[in-house]
Every structure is written in structure tokens, then in C-alpha cells.
Amino acid sequence: MDAALTDRSAPGGWLARRLLQMVPLVFGITIVLFAVIQAAPGGPEGALLESGRFIDPQVIEAYRHRLGVDRPVPVQYVRWLTAAVRGDLGISFSTTRPVTAMIVERLPATLELMATAFGFAAIVALGLGIFSAVRQYSAFDYLTTGLSFAGIAMPVFWFALILQLVFAVRLGWLPVAGTGTVGDTSLLDHLRHLILPAFVLSVRYIAGWSRYLRSSLLATLRADYIRTARAKGLPERRVIVHALRNALIPVISIMALNLADLFSGAVITETIFAWPGIGRLFIQAMFSRDYPLLMGILLMGSVMVIIFNLIADLVYGALDPRIRHD
Amino acid sequence: MRSVHSRRLERPRDPSNRAAATLGVSVLTAAIALLAACAAPDAGGRAADGGTGGDGGGRKILRIAYEREIDVLNAFTSQNLADIMFSIVEGLITTDEHNTYVPVLATLIPTANNGLIAHNADGTIDMTWPLHENVRWHDGQPFTSRDVCFTWKFVVSPNSQTYNRDQYLGIVDCLMPDEHTVVFRWNGTYAYYAGLFEAILPEHILGGRTTEEIVNYTPYNRGPEMVGTGPFRFAEWKPGEYIRVVRNEQYWRGPEYPQIDEIVWSFIPDTNTRLNAMKAAGFHYARLLPTQVQEVARVEGYETHLISSNTFMHFDVSANTERARVLFGGANVRRALFHAIDRDAIARQLMQGTVEVANTPINPSSPYHDAGVIASTFDPQRATRLLEAAGWTVGSDGIRSRAGVRFSFTMLNRAGTQDRIAIAQVIQAQLKAIGVEATFETLESAAWTQRWRSGQWEAMVSAWFLSADPSLTSLYLCDGPNNMTGFCDPDLDRVMLASDRELDFAKRKPLLDQVQERLADDAFSLPIYYNVVPEMVSTRVGGYRGNGTNFGSFWNLWEWTLR
Fold this sequence. Notes:
The complex is a heterodimer. Helices cover 76% and strands 0% of the residues of chain A. The termini of chain A are close together. Chain A has 15 helices and no strands. By secondary structure, chain B is α+β, with helices and mostly antiparallel strands. Chain B has 18 helices and 22 strands. In chain B, strands 1, 8, 9, 10, 11, 12, 13, 17, 18, 19 and 20 form an eleven-stranded mixed β-sheet that branches. Chain B has a four-stranded antiparallel β-sheet with strand order 4-5-7-6, with helices on one face. A three-stranded antiparallel β-sheet of chain B has the order 14-15-16, with no helix packed on it. The N and C termini of chain B lie far apart (79 Å). The model of chain B is unreliable at 1-29 and 31-48 (pLDDT under 50).
């Protein structure tokens, strides 16, 4: 009891503990990531061979030696870790460029795409969730329920290609792929390129979040304190606003966890729409067994998941006064 | 009581509830309207226009939907078949649309007939390459024989990572009689000599650096110091998006070349997106899949060219494992398997008639192709007879066996290669019809490559990419560095090695004919078809001459036009 009181009076202590816990956690993650990446069969020389050209075997050996992948895995890991703690994530095998620079270069595109999708999804999901809950079992509710299930179940690549066919090929309203027309630096051109990939990405979030919000709001509207509010004669609009704040708590927690996606990108969407983000970089790194680049991207993604978990906990506590971090 | 409240909430009648619901819809509508506001009608041309050309303030901009982002622009250290860089850099030679080497920075290719090949008393051979005199690098520095010899030194250094470095090792010295003549001194005769030096490195940029430093030198690999002698200068590389090159105003072929102001290679890795991008008329050129050809046949403003590639698809059986030797050890058994495979059906039906059945590894466009060779005929009855004669009899499960060994093997597939897997499925079904079982093991690309190189597999459908030189030694020599099947025919070795040493076409051709006939007779690798690369090109593009070699169709960009 005393300890709990102490924690309540000193939330900074809880935060410091959580931050300290992150250090061994990240260290453990790097070991697992490195081991899993190295355990995958094949090596970076695969890219050299994939073209189908005749390759001098000595070139393959020289290539492996230069990259250091002919050394024992623990030695490779220690070398990588020693550099990483100094902020050096190594040199990409395929492009011979610093991994950090490559990630930093791709991050803005991913952040922009994901943030747009998030923002749009949040607005739409809020509208759909509220409306569906307030009009439960109405035609609109059934329609949004059906569309939500379709949104969750629909393969992203298929949906993306269909949108391309309709809006780019048939109607000619939007471009097929890319971030902009080369030579056209206008904001409008860029926004037009952003619409389809952002919409495709947002559909999954809209479908999920609107369902969460609908369920949460329905449960909240049945709570005793809402009944009390109504009995006191509070106008229905204020009752709903009142309920919404509590109903949003679990939804916002889920959204906060999803925020980690902002940094890890969307592999399929970015590939289909030729969007130069982290997701596409990850796929390239994976197929070419570019170990330093893979480690860099995965490490960043892992750290972001941990950080946004922490943020989710903080948000949860801020929104719900019943929750205390002890 | 609770249920009463629930029903009311479920079907609200209070006007204020409707107001809240309206609020939700309003938010939704506003969001969609905001998004839709940005969707203005496309200013670009539609499909009938054949792409958006000449749309950069009067500049002629060629837009290419390219299938991948390359790694580096150094043609010798790139792991990709990087045809992009041949717009910027040039070599002593290139290949034309007839699979023939043609000089670029050299004025002539040395041959036995033009007097540029001299045999020395010590057994070495001097090959003299005269160079064009008015060539300058993009930064204005003159191109000389020093650059050529510098390139040779780089390629043969142990860490250069040049994929065909071994082919350069026969050159023992590089001599520079003057600035515009280079002489390669070879330690013997190598018929592939004409296909080397497909690019030249700038000595004034990369000289004074170690091999390692050159390999990792980013300013040249992808940056401002990337200079060549080609028709276009490097301008910009936007990571993940595109590479842009602009007209070289000082191009050595004359002020009228090139005839295009700018080229943009946009990286569009997804094949369906690439197709959609072409249909939306956003680009002038794209490579497609053979299975997409029919879909684009009626797109106005474009022509689809089926470029026969030097890549040939083949079905291999292995001699590397004990089980594979038991199953495939007899030539008649291998022939039986090949007789069961209907290659014509694969070409006509599976590949929709876009490809040509292959009978030898050498492409029909090559003057060394032997049209008289038939690798195998579709004859299941003969296949059955051959298997019966070899003692493989059908068991109760419908699969043949001999001395307790079932005729069952595993085909190693590479994930993501739909064409190869589809072929493997056809072969699987056709072999089953003669009582032979083929099962599949599918591995992701890098894992597949590792297994393939290790020799631990029994059968597979695979593809090789040959250069314009027809040498097959690397592939089929008993200890050839790329002999993955493990089969060995010493007689074949002798003929192949002799063909590699013969510079005279009239003498080399019969030797290579023998090689192709013997390969068909040995029957350890069944050519299936020559790969076709469908290239969708805007009708506004002129000068296009499709090329199936590693130089690709951009080999003559200097003469392309854009109407």
C-alpha cells in the first residue's frame, strides 16, 4: 500500500524503471534478430548469382570475405554490436552505403504515408464507430459491419491493384504509383500520388478501429453511470460525448500500439505503389540478405514497438484515472 | 430493466441521438471529401497517346518503368544485370540486336582477318584495340588508353567482385603504344575475348584508390562523380524512386546525338503495377511478363516486342547425390524422362505461344546456333519402352521401381518464379503419366541459390543467361565453375575447350555444332525454351532495337528518338 502510494507520488520513478528495462530488452532483441537472420539459409552472395550469369567462384568467396560473412556468427555479432552501441549500424552489403543514412533517407516517405493513413483512418473510424454504435442494428450498422469485415479480410495487394485499375487506368484521376511526377514539384501532384496508397493502408485500420469503437461505445452506453446520467436528465448528445471519452480508452491504446507501424512501413502497399519507404527497403534487404540493413530496420522497428508500448501505457493512465502505474 | 435500456440504446429515437449520428456521418463525409478534393483529372496523356512524352517544358523526356532499383552504378561491381548504366558508361564493345559484338569506344574489334591479332614468339598473343580519338568523359577529361588499362587492373584485382573476372585473367599485360591504342597481351587464345570490357572506368576519378576503396566509393557508385563517356550524363538518383540522366551535350558521336533530352528510370518492382502504369500511359517503356502479353495487345499507342533473350529455360537432373546417380545414371533413362516432357505444349499453352522451344543453349539469333539439333521429342510411348528396357517396372502404386528403389525424386523450386514452378508442375504431371514421381521442395530465393550451388538437389527447372559469346565451357565442363548438375563427359570437354581456343568463326562453328549435338545426346539437361522478354514500347519512341543480351535494349539509346 505504501509502495503504491509512493509510486503514485513519483510517476517519474516508474518511467525511469521502464526506460531502464528497455536496455536489456533491446539487447536481447538484437541477439534474437541476429540469430534469426543468420539462420535463414542462403547468403548475400545469392544476389550475385540470381542474375543467371556465369559467376567466377573465386569472386563469390572474395565477396563473402569482404562482407565478413565468412566469419563465425558470434564474431560477426560482436563486431556489429560494438559498432551499433557507438551509433554505427554498419554498411549495406548491396549499396555500400551507411545503413543509418539509408534508413533516415526512407523514413520520411514511410512516416508521411503512414501518418496520412492513420489520420484519415482515425477520422473515418471515429465517425463509423460512433454512428454504428448509436444506430446499432440499423441498415447503416449492418453495412459498416459488412464493409469492416471485408476491409479486414480483403488482401491488400488485390485491393490496391483494383484501385489502380479503377482510379488510374480507367478513370485517369490518380497516378498509378510513385510519390510524384518527375519534374513536377507541386504539392498537389504529390498529394495525388499519396491518395491511393494512403487509402489502401487506412482501410485496414478503419475496419479494425471502427469495430473496436463500436463495441466499446456500446458497452459504455450500457454502464450504470450512463443510466444515472440519463436519469439526471442530461441531454442525449452530452451523454454520448460523456460515454465517448471512456469508450475511446481501449481504442486509443490499440491505436498507440499501431503507431509503431509508422516507422516500420507497409511492405506490400509500398511495393505495389512503388513508394520509397522503409517497408520496401526491408523487402530489398531481405531478398538480398543484406544483414546490416536488415538488422538496422528490424532494430528500429523493435525499439519503436517498445516505445509505443510505453506511450500506450502512459496514455491509458492519463485517460483513465483508475489506472496507476505501480 | 437492463434490457429495456438496451433496446432503447440499440434503436435510439431521441432526436439528439440522431444529431450525434449525424455528427459521425459528417466527420466521415468531410474526410472523404478532403481526400477526393486532391483527385484532379490526370493531365498526362492517356493510353492512346503512347505515354507522356515531351512534357517537360518542351524537353523530350523518356520515361521508363523499370523493374527494380539497382545497387550501384559501377558496371563491374553491380550485382544486377544493370542495363541502366549503359546509358552513362560505355565499353569497348556492346552487342547489337543480332547477338553480335559491335565496337563502341573501340573503332574496330581485333580479328584474325583485320591484322589486329598478332602471335608472339613466346606463345603470347597481342590484340590491338584502336580507340576513338575525340571521346571525353562527362567532366571534360579526355578518354585514353590509360583508362582502359586502369579498368583491366581493377577487374583482375582479387577483390574487384567482377562476376566474370576469371575471363580477364588470361590477359597478362595491358600496353599503351599511344593514347588511342591499347594492346592486350594474352597468355593464349580465348575466343570470348571480344565480349570483355563492356564498360570502362575513369582513371582520373578512381585512380590512386585501392580496389576496396573503389568498390565502396559512393561518389562514383551513385553520386556526383559518376562519369562516363555515354550519351547521357548522370543527374539524379532519388533512392527508392528513380534515376535520372540528362543529355550529354558533348557526346562524341556528334552534336545531333542523343536525340532525347532526359531519361527517367522509375523503379516499379511490382509487375502488375508496371502493367497498370503502362496502361495509364505514364511511361514509354516497360518490360512485362510473357503472361501479360495478351492483356496489352490491344492497348493503343504501344507495341509489344517479344525479345528473344539469351536466357534459356532448362530442366536439369543431377549427378551429384547418390540417389540421383541411381535414378539418372543411365543415358536412356534420362532420355526417357525427356521424351515424356511436351515442350511444345509448354511453349504454346503455358507460355501462350510467346516463346520458342529451345534445342540447344545457344540462342537462334546467334550465328553459332545449330538449327539441326533436336534435344528431344515428345514421345511418351518411347519413354515407357526405354524405362521398361532399363528395368524400371510399374508398381502397384503406379510408380516405377527397380531393385526396391522407387522412381521418385524431388524438384527444387525457387519461390516467386511462377513461370518455373508452372513448368515444373507440367513436368511433374507428364512424368507421372509414365510412372515417375516428382515431388516439390520450394525454397525462398537466397536459400534456393545456396542449395543449387551446393549440388544437394535431384532435379530442377532453371535458367542461364548467356553472353553473346557462345562458349559453354563454364556450364558443362566436368570441373566447370558453373557445372551445377555434376555431369561429366570428357569427350564433350575436349570439343568445348577446342572451341574456346578457336578465333576463326569458320573453324569454331563446327566445333560448337559438335558441342550442341553432344549435349543433346548426353541428355542431362533438357533445354525447354528461350526466354522471351516482352517489351512494351510507346509508338512515339524511335530507334528502338530490342536486344536479348546482358546489355539489354538500351544498348543504342544514343539513337533513340521521342516524337
